Amino acid sequence: MARPINLCDYERLAPERLPALVYDYYAGGANDELTLAENLQAWGRWHLRPRILVDVADIDPHTTVLGHPLAMPVLTAPCAFNALAHPEGECAVARAATSAGIIQIVSTLSTQSLEEVAMAANGQRWFQLYCYRDRGVTRALVERAEAAGYTALCLTVDVPVAGQRERDIRNGFGLPAGMRCKNLTPVGLDQIELVADDSALQRYINELLDRHLTWESVAWLRSITRLQLLIKGILTGEDADLAIEHGVTGIIVSNHGGRQLDGVLSTCEVLPEVVETVAQRAEVLVDGGIRRGTDVLKALALGARAVLIGRPYLWGLAVEGEAGVRHVLELLHQEIVLAMALVGRPVVSAIDRTLLA
Ligand code: FNR
Ligand code: LAC
Questions:
Q1: Pairwise CA distance, residues 26 & 81, whole Å
Q2: Per-residue pLDDT tens for 15-59?
Q3: 188 Cβ neighbours under 8 A, 6+ residues apart
Q4: Which of 234, 277, 276 is CA-nearest to residue 255?
Q5: Which tens digit of pLDDT belongs to each residue from 260-318?
Q6: Is the CB of residue 109 below 6 angstroms from any atom belonging to ligand 2?
Q7: Where are the beta strands (DSSP E) in the chain?
Q8: Which contacts of 68-72 are long-range, i.e. CB under 8 A and separated by 24 or more positions?
Q9: 79 C-alpha to center of ligand 2: Å?
């Protein structure tokens, strides 16, 4: 294929660059992958209402999220094990996100340590937190993220137990020899060794992450850090309400890219309910199936402050390392600018519900 010209082109190229085990881990979802497919299709069900004869000579896709400037309303989602795509892993993503002027959210399960990623580029970054059963382990991760200059914590709440990812079970997914979850090296929990006919990641999550996690845990987390706190994985108005009661300033509507509970609604369909309940008391972000500039505009029109992209940057990383991630972000930027021009909304604040039919 010639040079990719959109995000899906990168996805089509990725299988040539990745072992099947890695491709399936990145691409796959839980069980029948119904929600995975829904996430992609749901954005296409909304249609745009363009305004005409608006001066679109200058298009400005800048915005802020929780007070942090963003060159466009996009962040990179926390995805585990970026080194499976390219040896420069999370550090390459850090450099690409910084040059694009956006925020990188670094996974607890990164293959380079949170300190190494922080040293790789001077942009803004947030830390995605998985709570280990051992609260001492969790607290140490939070303290390290603070010390390394991360400006917010995203607590992921949709993995009390691991989803059933059948591709990973069939493939026997785990990390190759020598690859570690470096953030956990100090406590000796950094290995996810291959096991035949089972997902070593599923075992790891089920053994080590805290399935007792409740709102009390959120209160505890709120009490041990001054960092801004977001919850990632909210899918109902009821839970959005509780999150705000617990001092959360950002809510990420997410179904983990269809990798946890198969059969939940697409995030596009859930977003309006959450936005309505939140009623401006917190900022709402969304991820899942965003592949086009018009998808980003639709998410904003439905009330999201910004979106996260997951798999598209992993495909860029797999195909061309840092340059691939940069290109993915440039392509999305160009598509956002073009879409804003064609719908006659030259600034982000002009994108509202009247854009959609
Ligand atoms: C993820 N996701 C994820 N989320 C999280 O909070 N911590 C993590 O470590 C991971 N790891 C991870 C690995 C891989 C390979 C994927 C594809 C996803 C979920 C991720 O942050 C995000 O919610 C989805 O990827 C968004 O959907 P799209 O953009 O991939 O469709
Ligand atoms: C995943 C976990 C690690 O989605 O969040 O693979």
A1: 10
A2: 999 999 999 999 999 999 999 999 999 999 999 999 999 999 999
A3: none
A4: 234
A5: 999 999 999 999 999 999 999 999 999 999 999 999 999 999 999 999 999 999 999 99
A6: yes
A7: 63-65, 68-70, 74-76, 104-106, 125-129, 152-156, 228-234, 250-253, 283-287, 306-309
A8: 68/103, 68/124, 68/151, 68/152, 69/101, 70/101, 70/102, 70/103, 70/306, 71/100, 71/101, 71/102, 71/333, 72/100, 72/101, 72/102, 72/296, 72/332, 72/333, 72/336
A9: 7
Q: How many CB atoms lie within 10 A of CB 352?
A: 12
How far is CA 301 from its chain centroid?
19
Residue 159 CA to residue 150 CA, distance in Å, equals: 22
Say if ligand 1 is within 6 A of residue 328 CB.
no
- Considering 68, 86, 256, 333, which one is annotated as catalytic? 256
All domains of the chain in start order, with CATH: 7-346 (3.20.20.70)
pTM here is 0.98
What is the whole-number distance in angstroms between the Cα of residue 46 and the centre of ligand 1? 24
Judge whether 86 counts as a catalytic residue: no
Helix, strand and coil content of the chain, in percent to the nearest 5, comes to 45, 15, 40
Task: Name the DSSP letter for residue 61.
Answer: -
Locate the ligand 2 atom nearest the alpha carbon of residue 109 and give its number.
3
What does the DSSP assignment read for 162-188?
Answer: ----HHHHHHT--BPTT---GGGGGGT
Token pair in block for residue 337: 């600018």
- What is the number of the ligand 1 atom nearest to the C-alpha of 108? 9
Query: Distance from the CA of 55 to the center of ligand 1, in angstroms?
Result: 38
Question: Cβ(285)–Cβ(316) under 8 Å?
Answer: no
CB-ligand 1 contact for 258 (6 Å cutoff) = no
Name the amino acid, one letter, at 306. Answer: A
Q: For atom 14 of ligand 1, which residue has the closest CA?
A: 79
**Centre of ligand 2 from the C-alpha of residue 256, in Å:** 8
Integer angstrom CA distances of residue 151 from 3, 44, 226, 229? 35, 34, 10, 9
Tens of pLDDT along 178-198?
999 999 999 999 999 998 889
Query: Could you tell me if 245 and 277 are in contact, meaning their C-beta atoms sit under 8 angstroms apart?
Result: no
Is residue 350 a contact partner of residue 72, using CB atoms and an 8 Å limit?
Answer: no
